[in-house]
Amino acid sequence: MANGEMGNDKKAKGASQGDQTQGSPPLKLRPIFPHDVEAATLCGLGAWQSTIGVCLEAFSHDQFIALQEAFRLYLYSFASGAVEAGERLIVAESNGAICGFCGYDDHKGYLSDLWVSPVWQGKGVAQALLHEMRSTMQDQGRRFLTLEVLAQNHRAFAFYKKQGFIETKRRVKYDPVLERRLMKIWMMQRL
Q1: What is the 3-state secondary structure of the chain?
Q2: What is the pLDDT of residues 121-136, one digit of tens each?
């Protein structure tokens, strides 16, 4: 994705919709840039550890290092523009800190990633990122938004249900980064 494809930086729309804590600094939503990759990697790893890592048994140090590298490469592919047409990643920033990010494909109507730093969870960051992504999808003429979530990630599943997603199926899927088969829940929302 080219740096200018998303236009100017935007204040988070979702932040005014009830979840952002009073007194929290405002969020700025924007594309990821190369200088954001390390901070976004740490943000993603922190979110992963607080939500998914606690659900998995026997996760080795080597697997964690592989996960860190997978995050870094994934984020760098967006920051450098080395992604397919329609694939986008936006970050939520507050006072210069990356608080979360959202990866999606607006051609397919698919949300691939939504990660929020543990210190920012419950403060409207995920809602703001989801709102921005939905707006982009609607602008692209998408009628549906789909995602998959780890079945053991009860907090994310509850969040998506609260946001209007419905469960469409469950299935075991092999995760090549985590090197294991995991139960996934597919969800969908009409835009």
Answers
A1: CCCCCCCCCEECCHHHCCCCCCCCCCCEEEECCHHHHHHHHHHHHHHHHHHCHHHCCCCCHHHHHHHHHHHHHHHHHHHCCCCCCCEEEEEEEECCEEEEEEEEECCCCEEEEEEECHHHCCCCHHHHHHHHHHHHHHHCCCCEEEEEEECCCHHHHHHHHHCCCEEEEEEEEEECCCCEEEEEEEEEEEC
A2: 999 999 999 999 999 9
